[in-house]
Write a structure and sequence with these properties.
By secondary structure, this protein is an alpha+beta fold. The protein is built from 10 helices and 9 strands.
């Protein structure tokens, strides 16, 4: 029996040893060398506008969510490893199956009453596929992305999408016409196709470069699935403003002991420069401190001879930001795809 340990969610994408994929079996027919014909009329275009790169956006979305739950831990195999003696379908499952384990442990209590599942697909013509499903997807009309794996290059010598990939895309869209994204790989290269149901409305694709394509496939598939699901539920991002009781006021600003005597107005006027210099908790519970805040606010307004109006240029001098703020550190090490 495989032992488990508790791990931080982000470690699932970096702490696994991934061997090279097994070789594709020799084709039993000459179909792989022929030109495939499809009934799809979609004209896929490569997205080259850096400001519209969707892969970067969905990865950033996943990163923000994982950062929000970085203190949580999920049960995971103590020594996750992928056997080098797997078939191609088993290898693909070993890469993608942990994605559902992640969501099944990080979701909010409102969703996934029955666990999310990994679904293996086979479209023939040496096209392996996978997707994800759950009862909630049917109830909420959600569609998960599809992952396709096939041999040979994804593009021809002219840089055009190969006919085999075009055929695989048409099969995937026949299976799930509303799928938001299709991730295609040959375990060397990865290309993400965004269907016209998404923004932008035209069908586009983005190529992804990575020195660890199999591990990158897990990350990108997780990010695309996360992007297709309602925010904050399938990865239960903490929202203190929604979850605490109505009578509880969260700390904001420097904490102050309400038992300490009130400072003189002159001292407050000289040392307080912004709203964040006041403790919100004591302001809403201590009338004398609230009145002092309003006096400070009036004092600040009187010091400004010219009111700030629209289109006014303001010149300022930094108040030694480097000396007043602590050095900002990452919560955990960043792991790049390449």
């Amino acid at each position: 029996m495989c032992s488990t340990s508790l791990r931080h969610p982000h470690q699932i994408f970096s702490g696994v040893s991934v061997p090279s994929p097994p070789p594709w079996p020799a084709p039993t027919s000459p179909s792989l060398s022929q030109t495939f014909t499809t009934s799809s009329s979609l004209q896929w275009k490569e997205s080259k506008d850096q400001n519209k790169k969707r892969v970067a956006r969905v990865l950033s979305h996943l990163q923000r969510n994982l950062r929000s739950v970085h203190k949580r831990k999920v049960a995971w195999p103590a020594e996750e490893s992928i056997s080098p003696n797997l078939s191609l379908s088993e290898y693909l499952m070993a890469i993608l199956r942990p994605i559902v384990d992640l969501f099944n442990q990080l979701h909010s209590p409102n969703v996934l009453k029955t666990p999310m599942e990994y679904v293996q697909l086979d479209f023939g013509e040496s096209i392996l596929g996978a997707t994800f499903t759950a009862e909630d997807f049917k109830i909420q009309c959600l569609t998960a992305p599809i992952v396709l794996c096939l041999p040979n290059s994804l593009f021809d010598s002219k840089g055009n999408i190969s006919s085999h990939v075009e055929y695989a895309l048409s099969k995937a869209l026949e299976f799930k016409p509303l799928t938001p994204s299709i991730i295609v790989t040959n375990f060397k290269d990865i290309t993400v196709f965004f269907a016209p149901a998404c923004n932008p409305p035209e069908p586009v694709f983005e190529r992804v470069s990575s020195t660890q394509s199999s591990l990158a496939l897990r990350v990108i598939s997780t990010a695309c699935l996360n992007d297709a699901l309602p925010a904050g539920h399938y990865i239960n991002v903490p929202r203190p403003d929604m979850e605490v009781g109505g009578n509880l006021i969260l700390p904001e600003g420097p904490p102050q002991d309400p038992k300490q005597p009130l400072l003189a107005d002159e001292q407050v006027f000289a040392t307080h420069y912004r709203h964040s210099d006041f403790d919100f908790v004591t302001l809403v519970r201590d009338r004398s401190r609230a009145l002092q805040f309003f006096r400070w606010h009036e004092h600040v307004q009187q010091q400004c001879s010219n009111p700030v109006i629209f289109a006014l240029s303001i010149h300022s001098t930094p108040r030694k930001f480097q000396q007043t703020q602590r050095h900002i550190l990452r919560r955990y090490n960043a792991n790049h795809l390449s």
